[in-house]
Amino acid sequence: MVESIVSTGMAIGCIYALIGITYNVMFTASRVFSFTAGTLGMLGGVLGSLFIAHMGMPVAAGFLLVLAAGAVFGIVTEIVAVRPVLKSLDQHLYVLSTLALALIVQQFTAIEWGTEARPFPRLFDIPRGGFDQQFWLPILACVVVIVGLELLYRHTLVGRAFLAISEDNYAARALGLPERSLRMASYALAGGIGALAGFAGGEMLLAFFGNAPILTFYGFVPVALGGMGSNRGAVVAGILLGLFQQAANFLVGGIFASVAVFTVFIIVLLARPEGLAGASLQRRV
Amino acid sequence: MLGAAGTFGAALPFLVLLVVGITFPLFGGGYWGVIATRACVYWVLVSGLNLVVGFAGQIAIGWVALLTLGAYTTSVLAAGNVMPALSPYLALAIAAVVGAIFGLLIGLPALRLRTFYFAITTLGFATIVTQVALAWQSVTGGGVGVPGPIFPEPFSSQWGLYYFCFGLAALCTWMTANVAHSRFGRALTAIRDAEVAAEASGISKPALLAVVFLFSGAVAAVAGGLFAALQSYITPDAFTLDLSVLFFIAILIGGRGSILGPLLGTILLTVLPEFAAPLVAWSTFLYAVLLLVIVLAMPGGIAEILDFQSRRPLESGREIVPRPDLLKQLLGAAPNAGALTLEQVALSFGGVRAIDGLDLEIRPNQVHGLIGPNGSGKTTTLNVISGYYVQQRGAVTLNGTALPALARHRRAHMRIARTFQTPRIVGSASVLENVMIGGSIDGEGTFVESLLSLPRHRRDEAMLRDSAILALAAVGLERLAPVRADRLQHSELRFTEIARALMLRPAFLLLDEPAAGLSAEEIRRLGALLLAIAGAGTGVLLVEHHADLIFDICHHVTVLNLGKKLAAGTPAEIRSHREVVNAYLGG
């Protein structure tokens, strides 16, 4: 049983962490938390099932198409829901615009794909058993993304430009960095990561439209616990969350697990709104 | 502001809806009765949520959780599958109490968290309530569900239930409209659009939001009980996030800070899908599209479309002519509050010493000027006095008593008022309402008294209105009283802020660059007004860049440089101070 808790918990935790990273990548580029993060995860599962199981595409082609679709949705999010409200004085508008976009996509999926959870195809034709692909795929995806982002941010010019606009938007623009293109690129990247989360975790989560709000919430918990914008924090907090949830599920039942996660989340947010590992104070007057 | 005709005009749409609602069974058939009852049930919830979302501006998207909670509480208690069955009315009342408690619990995070965090918290709560309803089979029946309550005669028939729900909906409309036109409603919009101004006016955000969440949770749970009675059988499936979206969007379509708009929005969203059967499946999709369109293109919603008054052009070439002679009447007997004193106050941000050992004394009856180059610590000094920062060393005392650290809203109770470098105004409220916000702490009635429009509430309103009109006349803006504040010119906003500050009958008035952006003539009138305010007994602290204004009206001037006092004395002494002239005035 311990084995099952650990493998399921790690895998689910890595999916939460990846959604958390999706939030973070969009946040660092625009100071906006987008409700579309969970929608991207849902799309990864639904589109993967659509391309591979229903349209019969090869796994590799389906995978690439899913990533591309995620990236496109990321760019659409930036153009439709983020850019028009960034300049607005009313700072909460982005909450509404990204929520609206997330709902539009979620409802469209519910109508066109159906409200039943459908199975996700097995990606590799290897026999089930032991540490199955449905467990190691999300973990692998998480490792790849973390290492990839680390390399991108630390060792490439584009990555450093990403960091620059997140550190100081005005200064970065004054230096001549193309802020808008970088923001769009960040959203495309976030879109790919979110879709990857849903794709890699497809076998566990299934292709189900209702995953969107669940991932939106549980994917934000690691961000809140790990610190806004901190990817490493999100991974640690995400895995802990997954393990805790699975352990509680097995040992004391689902009600307790959900209520406990929610309570911890609220308490942490109340005690440290900027996350356990972050610090920021805004001047208001 | 509004004559009898204006009041009637504002009430007319509600009266029409009331008549339509009462006579509805005469022309509505069986199925339409269900739709109409549903609209009433939804409105009971939305009316309360409107105070949270529309007035206080808190993005509560998971309010369906409270509907679920109320529906299950009422049904389970009335069905008696846990304990002996209760009367449905008692069950509904208990649900209201449970709803109020949970409304407060969900709402609490909003006291510290902003926008997205609060939104996601309510979303998480909604997810969890559904999961619990599914999993807690012994009580909720799990996926199988429980029967809803049946209200006894005369409310057991279809039209009986309709009239029951309609009555509650009408009651909720009346109560929330009362709150909207009370100091509480104005304070909520101030928290939404100008939080720092609300604090400076003595409005305590936690206390106010707590009551609103209690009320909103209670009516949402009552709506849940009615919903269960209407459905006659409830399962967790009935409470999807789609419903939350409907409630939330009804408010935004209607327009924030309005009662009529969200009411029409709720009716519209409930009825619209019924006209086109194929649309039912797409309704939430369409609501979401509508939300996006509204956010991007029409943030004011239906209420703004119906606001014909604000489209009439204002007269051009308006002049602000203050009437300082009215100040005596407005401010009353000269308050004797002693002096406001800063002693050796120091505050650093990181390595930067914003203020470094500052001494300052503001006395009643005097205008004290605080000048210095940019970054010399003027606004920081103001912010320490009004409680946004805590000094690291030294003391800020009022008549010998230290001011409480960080308790911004308590400054108003000590009659310390302030204005802001950028005017902080509720743009969608009228100028008069904005000024009335300044007198919030002088109201005596409680929230419940405002809810029910009891005598003390009406007395408060009359008193605040009279004072606000007087304050507007004193600063020279009484002709603009009924105008939406966001239509005013910059200089008019500055005088509006002063009028709002005067509502406190301040012992001390702190002004942060009040002359910025004013014409020479307006600056001269501002100077005369400030002198008259000081003459009425108030101690004025004037942070300003206009050297002429400072030297014209100040009794005492302190010059700051790099957080330290460079010089202090009468205007004449400062003008001849060699270092000041070199460092700042030029000469």
Task: Produce the secondary structure layout.
The complex is a heterodimer of chains A (285) and B (587).
Chain A lengths: L1 H29 L5 H19 L4 H28 L6 H21 L19 H23 L1 H11 L1 H6 L4 H22 L1 H4 L5 H16 L4 H21 L2 H18 L14
Helix pairs in contact in A: 1-2, 1-5, 1-6, 1-8, 1-10, 1-11, 2-3, 2-4, 2-8, 2-10, 3-4, 3-8, 5-6, 5-8, 6-8, 10-11, 11-12
Chain B lengths: L3 H24 L2 H26 L8 H16 L8 H20 L1 H4 L2 H21 L1 H4 L5 E2 L10 H23 L2 H11 L1 H6 L4 H27 L1 E2 L6 H14 L5 H16 L7 H15 L3 H5 L21 H5 L8 E10 L2 E11 L4 E5 L6 H8 L7 E6 L2 E2 L5 H6 L2 E3 L12 H7 L9 H5 L3 H21 L14 H13 L5 E5 L7 H16 L3 E5 L3 H7 L2 E6 L2 E6 L1 H5 L2 H8 L2
Parallel strand pairs in B: 5-10, 5-11, 8-9, 9-10
Antiparallel strand pairs in B: 1-2, 3-4, 3-6, 6-7, 11-12
Helix pairs in contact in B: 1-8, 2-8, 2-9, 2-11, 2-12, 2-13, 3-4, 3-6, 3-11, 4-11, 9-19, 12-13, 12-14, 19-21, 19-22, 21-22
Short structural summary:
Chain A is mainly α and 285 residues long. Chain A has helices spanning 2-30, 36-54, 59-86, 93-113, 133-155, 157-167, 169-174, 179-200, 202-205, 211-226, 231-251, 254-271.
